[in-house]
Every structure is written in structure tokens, then in C-alpha cells.
Request: fold
Amino acid sequence: MTMDQYCVIGNPVAHSQSPWIHARFAELTGQRLHYGRRLVAADGFADAVRAFAAEGGKGCNVTVPFKFEAQALARRASERALLAQAANTLSFASDGIVADNTDGIGLVRDIEVNAGLALRGRQLLLIGAGGAAAGVLGPLILCRPAAITVANRTPSKAQALVTRHAPLASQQQVALQSSALETIAGSFDLVINGSASSLSGAGAPVSASTLRHDTLVYDMMYGPAAQGFLAWAQAHGAQARDGLGMLVEQAAEAFCLWRGVRPPSAQVLGELRQHLAHGER
Reply:
């Protein structure tokens, strides 16, 4: 019996733990599938997706730098992908490509369920305005924090993201504003780094004045890429968490979309942390 084929597409992609995660999900839920990695050139994303679908692939996850392109490529898209204008999960249907974005629900589940921080009524700072930040802002708003500030090195990009999400924020009674990184006002219960600063090895993108003694500082990156920002947070007395839980939880949502079965994400997250701690790949 042939196995259904899935993959993660990106550049870079060799570091991705998604194949390990989905293989474990399949094992625990009795699903027959194979999940691989596909490295594609910067100008080759659309051709790579269409080629994988033509080979019989059932769906793919999309990582940097292709999340905006993934949403634009689709014939149909979920409400959350349309709002984000970015997608990280593609399904191949008989009438074309279907886009969704599971990043936001993955982030929320990791923060609220795994880390135990209820977001309702909190003060949030979201750093970045690219595909990662765009994918999580809507789901964060739906948790009804008191306020969210979106800060970015290019303020106009943060403002564009805020403007697009303003109707949802108003509906949920969430104060939503944009800021330049240098002029962020106040301190926050939760600081989320959705920028590329960790990938590039840059220093902390914001001032320590954004932190409180009990602030949770969250980097969407994981592993060595996140360590600099998290060490900075801990040095200033904040709690620190990397994005490994988000990775597992967004994968669980994608797996459920594709297979109709929800895998035991908390178990797999614990196993993955052990897996990485022993230096395995």
C-alpha cells in the first residue's frame, strides 16, 4: 500500500523538525504517511508546490520566506489565512490549492495550554510585521487581551498589519496599535518576537524597559537561534520560552486538517525536547 505524501517547503529547510514531528504524529494515531523536506530556490516556490501536487502529494507546510506567496498561490483560503495574507499549510484539493494558517492557533495553544498563561486582559507586545507576525495577530486578538502593540523596524509595515486587523480588534474590544521599535511605550505581560532578529543573530530588538518582573518573553524561533534573545530576557528577570511548542502545536493543527485526527501534541512536544537535548535529528 502506498503512503500519502506530505512535506515542508522552505529556504532554508534542512533544520526543520517537521518531518520528525509528523512521523511521530502518524505513528501515534495509526496514520500511514510520509513527510519530507523540500529546499527550493527563492524564485521557485510556485513551481515546487505544483510539482509536488502533480507527483501525488496531499499537502505541504510552508516556512520562510514563502508564507505570503503561499497564500497568494491558493485557489481558496481560510478566513485566518486571508486575514494574515500569509499561509503555512497548503492542501491539494480536486479544484486546486487550499491555504490555511495554523501558526496563530499553534502559538496560542503553546502559551495558554503548555505555558499556562491566560491571554485575556493582558498587555501584549508583538515584534515584527512579516509572515510570522501576520499569521499570529488574528488568533491573539481572539483571545481578547486588553491591548496589543505591534512594533517593527519599519513602522509603516506594523501600521499596515494593524490597519488590516483593526475591525477584528474593535469587535473583540482589544486596543491595537503600532509602534517603531525605538519608541515602544510601557511594559508588557507578554513579549513575542516574530521578527528575523534571532535568525540573523542580532541582539535583542527591544529595550529592557518593555519587561516586567513576571513578563513571559517568547521567541517564535527555537534551538540555538532563540538562545540569545531568551538569555537576554532571563538576564533581566523575565521568564523565557522558545517556539518549539508553537512548532508542534501548529503542526498538530495542520495534521488534523489533513487527516481528520488530532494527535497528542503535548506528548510529542515532551518527546521532541528530549530528542533535541540528546543532539538527535
Remarks:
- The two ends are 27 Å apart (CA to CA).
- The first strand starts at residue 4 and ends at 10.
- The chain is about 40% helix and 20% strand.
- The mean pLDDT is 95.
